[in-house]
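Q: What structure does this chain adopt?
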Amino acid sequence: MRLRFLLRPGWLALTAVVFTFAICCFTLLSPWQFSRNAEREQQNAALQASFTAAPVPLAQLLPPGSVPGGRTEWHLVTITGRYLPDKEVVARLRTVQGEGAFEVLTPMRTADGTVVLIDRGYVGLDSKSAAQPFAPPPAGTVSVTARVRADETDPKNRDAFADASTGGRLQSYVVDSRVVARAGGLDIRPGYFQLDVGQPGVLGALPLPQTDSGPFLSYALQWIAFGAMALLGWLYFTVRELKPGGALDASSAPSRRKSVAEILAEDELAESGHQK
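A:
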């Protein structure tokens, strides 16, 4: 029965590879790209809203105990307090407009006693790839307008450190209020706040992300197409092999052409038979 070829080891291996690939396309790769597209759309919507919305007090947008999320990130808030320069941490290995940079993270104690993390912007690299000198934050009470940002996460959960390579200045691998809190022994509320141009204490204001849709939707559709093509290809070859003359049909395989030596040997045997 021709269905037996489906049980051959080579065909079973091919079937396993095709179906595994298709399942990954439909359940992992495509949904991942769809989720990234949704995140980009949410970010773009938040950015667009922040361009026209007036700044609001921090406690109004993010009451105590709340954490920045998709609905609040990038919105402008006003904060009044005093910078804590002795608790400052510099985030390393950053990239701003294609160039290496450091971001300067300075805690601020607000009027109600809450400590928040202010991202004062970026500084470039010097000739030794260290942070260029930068101005300290202003002393005394100041009012700033900043954008709400969610904490980054370091997969390795590394703490801030200071050694000879950092010039004794604390440095971190991510912009994370939890890392700065542990380094300075502070109770900092979750998230951080990115200064805009012209704000007290700002250095190089970080550029805002572009609001283009990105390639994620097209990538998701491509993975669906790849999975479908793999299944259709498997189905095509399966149907072809079920028909007589398939590549796996040994009975229909062309016979091997005889070599010249084999033909001569057969002729000699035939002649010797006639002579007898």
